[in-house]
Structure prediction request, 1012 residues.
Amino acid sequence: MVTKELVKKVASIARIELSEEEVNKFTKEFTAVIDWFNELGEVDTKGVKPSYHPLKTENVFREDEVKECLSQEESLINTNHKEKGFFKGPKAV
Amino acid sequence: MKAEEFAHQARAGKINLEDFYVEYFKQLRKIDSKYDCFITISEEEAFKQLEKLPRGKLYGVPVSFKDAICTRGLQTTGGSKMLEGYKPTFDASVVERIKAEGGVIVGKTCMDEFGLGGFSTNCAYKTPKNPIDDSRVTGGSSGGAGVIARAIKGPHIAIGESTGGSISCPASFCGVNGLTPTYGRVPRHGLLDYACSLDKIGVLSKHISDISLTMSIIAGFDKRDLTSRSEEVPNYSMPQPVKDLTIGLPKEYFGEGIDPKVSDCVIKSVKKLEDQGVKVKKVSLSMSKYALPAYYLVAMSEVSTNLAKLCGMRYGLELPIRKDGFNEYFSKVRAVGFGTEAKRRIILGTYARMSGYRSKYYLQAMKVRTLIINDFKKAFKSVDLLAAPSMPVIAPRFDEVDKLTPLENYKMDILTVAPNLAGIPMLSTPCGEVSGMPVGLHLMADHLQERKLIDAGVALE
Amino acid sequence: MSEVIIGLETHVQLNTKSKMFCNCPTLGDDEPNTRTCEVCIGAPGSKPRLNKAVVSKALAIALALNCKINKQMTWDRKSYFYPDMGKNYQITQYDDPIGKDGYLMVNDHKIRIRRVHMEEDPARLVHPGGSILNSDYVLVDYNRSGVPLVEIVTEPDLDSPEEAREYLRQLTSILEHLGVYDSGDFTMKSDCNISLKGGERVEIKNVSGLRNPELALKGELARQQRLHGKVKRETRQFNPVDGTTHALRTKESEMDYGYIVDPDLPWLVISDDQIKEVKDSLPELPAGRVKRFVKEYKMNPGQAYTLVSDKALADFFEQSVKGYKNASRVAAWIDTQLLKCLNYNKETIRESKVTPKSFMELIELMDSGVITERLGKELIKDFVSTGVSPKKLVQKKGLGRLELSDLEKVVGKVLKDNKDLDLKNNPKQINFLIGQVLKATKGQADPNKVRELIKKKA
Prediction:
């Protein structure tokens, strides 16, 4: 059973502010979805290794070399929240 | 006209590209006004490209990119309000490679927000309409690509992307070819992430030869995407006859939930291949039932981390920074910037990897994924290709889609999620019609066996 | 078991040329946001590109700390939202740290190392109001974002704030001897965990350097002792300006990081051959260097330990004594006089203007008798403060050993000026006379020679 409290809790971890309407809607919808997810519990996966990639991939690196960076202006180009060459953000509390 | 032919004529001086594009953009805008397939049409930038166009394999060929693909200095939104006006400071690998061969960027196509959807009805800008019957959806999430590939008269290469079936679905619904390459075959550098272990850039077009030409240009390792494959890129443009191939029909893909008329079209198409010497046999993919929930758990878990970076700082949608603490600010921006489906999947994905649930959902899905991959590997020991319908139905109508619950929405991907989870390459190719709407034949091959798909596609053309 | 229980989680910036997942430089222009790219500002569509030097340095650290090496690793995304994050997840090693179950000896105490792992540094925050509490917004500089870190976590084996500092000093020495870290250019920060036996644990986050963790722990220890068993489990922040700690929101410790494997990065597989290769080619580490110093330079182990505990100092020593026979003498002078002056000037040998060459000049001036040992001890103060070479200082001040004839003249004058002193009956008054001679010669005279001369003349 998915409760409103659970939906609110997870939404807050995901940093998405939901309206009451959204909370109600999602609570209803998620119950069906999560029941469906629970069907995976039927599968016996003892001893099965997880596949984080669909094909095997290992040990691909790059050399420790310095290449050209963005200029300060380029770095800040996609935001209006900037001041004295810094990015600006909400306070850290 | 096929791209290769067009490029050849253009290089030979037989086509005046300036004149061509004046007319071409008129047509493009007409199609867009009818079917709403473009988020951005880049006419000015295209003419600028013409000033200094490399005389490569795609010389002068018009190319559109799903708006999930970064184009330097040109708006890239991912179909979301979150990135309205966002202009990347770099080109994606595929954009670089296509430009280097003389491909001309004509626009960025509509998509479900960040790939989250199966009908392109979740685009924050426009909802693309099916060009064959505009009361019907285009399929998603590369809906705009499907539309333009179908509706345009003249050469066109539409670059799309698939995570759970987002190339095969619009290709099938719009009646064009759509190739989803092996995971990693085409580098993802510059692709806005939906799910990093599932995303694959691919090609939609009326002509198989367009697809093979494009693949020869965009495939291959790029050191800026460490998951891109370093295996040699074969010559895709030399199709072989199919008579030595064996095709398997997975019984789970033809049964319950699939429109029997759609299955019929597909079987008829497979028969055409049989007539050319292909052997056909029945196979079983026993884990099929679990592919849908496993796919959605993997995809949602990954996307909930990928979309975390969109929070009203550095790029994208911003709100005024007053005195809100960071939690309040981020939560407000994301509430405004994301559409409903994006919110759903981010929240479900966050849940699936929370401590206490991570083992049961995220990890279990990854383990089931192994079993699904094994299923395919086992099948490919005895067959070269698998064949099935791409979608269980023809393109539904908008009013039908509106009535679907989220779960019913997800279940539409029933035929495409398993091969996408397994990262195997697939080709959706038109194979007939039901009620005037196209049906797609879905061919699947083992990892890195795109050539066999192309061979079969050519044989059916 | 100790009354005080301390564990440290130390983050060390590695001295690679480029960042962990992109080719931006780790050092350079300090103007904000001048060393960034799409990867380290977390621009949509960018993917991480792993720097192979980060892995080889981390492997060397894990081996030097006697860890078991994990041979197959994935990378993990640690999700949390904060204004200093580029992607609102940090790429780290949660499930599979590169090294586990190692140890570091601090004097004779074995400090167990629980884990060694790699992760990326977030950006640097500037609080326009001066502190996190009185700023309405933050300013962010992504130059630091993506710098490679190695995190080294101890078991709670440390017994005291002093031992914690000594542990960090030894750790720094190991890292510098490995060539993976430079304390001059890069940063070391520790989260310090402390509890009193039977009590709750308090974590003090992000304390940089060697001295500050000791101060923070000392202050926190005193605070906990004052609370007489009523310590709350919490996270605190250290203020280096006044040496106090204050509590952060308790929510910090309830964070759910929602770990998933990062699919953008391939598996990291380390072979036995690779481990052997790195192990065999590890440079000389502090423990080995101490043994060598004792043997080669005939030092006492205490001296050797002090020198080697600061790599730059040990290097300074070895360069100084090249071709010089009495290494022990040089070691003693470094250990006592030089270190004392450096401390007084609040410098380490790295910042100092003193070079091995100029330092040996001082030693040689004393060896050759131009100045006395006593004068040398005076001179070194100016030498360390100004960096002016000892030879020049001697010249400038008009110092230098007196000719015997000149000395005899001075002794004669002093004796004449003090002829009422009766040395036969008050032998101790010779010291007064020696003092007068030294005064007259501005300390240049050798007191023993003066004593000798006075006895002769008197």
Observations:
- The mean pLDDT of chain B is 97.
- Chain B has one domain: 1-461.
- Chain B is about 40% helix and 15% strand.
- Residues 301 and 349 of chain B are 4 Å apart (CA to CA).
